[in-house]
Amino acid sequence: MATGKQAFRASTSGAIFGVILHEEPIPPLQVNPNLPLDLERIITKALEKDREVRYQVASEMRADLKRLKRDADSGRSPVGARLVPAQWLALRWRWPLAVAGLVALIAASGLLWFATHRTPPPHPEPKPRRLTANPAGNPATDAHISPDGKYLAYADQAGIHLQLIDTGETRTILQPQDVGYDITG
Fold first, then answer.
1. What whole-number distance in Å separates Cα of residue 87 and Cα of residue 119?
2. Which residue range is the domain that position 148 belongs to?
3. Is there a contact between 17 and 112 (Cβ–Cβ < 8 Å)?
4. 28 and 35 in contact (C-beta within 8 Å)?
5. In what order do the strands lie in the sheet with 151-156?
6. pTM higher than 0.90 for the full model?
7. Per-residue pLDDT, 146
8. Is residue 181 in a domain?
9. pLDDT digits (tens, 9 = 90+) for 42-95
10. Phi-psi region for residue 104, left (φ > 0), alpha (ψ -120 to 50) or beta?
11. How confident is the model at residue 91, as a pLDDT?
């Protein structure tokens, strides 16, 4: 807002994030030579790539902007000021918009950081699942799961069963008539 141009430009939101992370903006004084040096310092600090050099909390930026506004309102010329009093008065009405824009930029940077640095969710705990529904009088015995975890093989009085675990589809191999069934093994 202070320069009349966006600090970062790109055609898509993904490209904008890349520009924000990897390119330096054009210095505000180079775009608008009438800006006070103190305002350029505030803007540059807000756009700093190194998060330890940026404003750590919004209240720090607010204090710097209030100091700049106070100096402009009192008629004191901040060090390096290049605006005449009439221009300071015009800037006085734009500073809330500048603060809102800078806060939005900081919030967007924070969201981008959280989006790229979040930890993956933990794996859910496995839950026990009943695979057979044999009644008490016909218990399933000698059950085995295939090495790939897809099949369950078990025996009961009716014969040997091969079950697809995912769908529950079961194939039964009938027990021959002359072989007796012994559940004790």
1. 49
2. 141-174
3. yes
4. yes
5. 141-145, 151-156, 159-164, 170-174
6. no
7. 92
8. no
9. 888 888 888 888 888 889 889 999 998 888 887 665 444 455 555 555 556 666
10. alpha
11. 58
Q: How many alpha carbons fall within 13 Å on the CB side of residue 6?
A: 9
Alpha-carbon distance of 14 to 113, in angstroms, equals 13
Say if residue 84 is in the same domain as residue 164.
no
Tokens for 37, please give them: 């040096």
Using the structure block, give the residue that is written with the tokens 């016909």: 138
Number of domains in the chain: 2
User: Can you tell me the distance from the alpha carbon of 163 to that of 158, in angstroms, rounded to the nearest whole number?
Assistant: 14
**Model pLDDT, residue 80:** 46
Q: Is 180 within a domain?
A: no
CA distance 126 to 107: 38
List the structure tokens of 132. Answer: 């057979």
The per-residue b/e assignment along 61-86, b for 16 or more CB within 10 angstroms, e otherwise, is beebbeebbebbeeeeebeebbbeee
> Under a CB-based contact definition with an 8 Å cutoff, are residues 102 and 64 in contact?
no
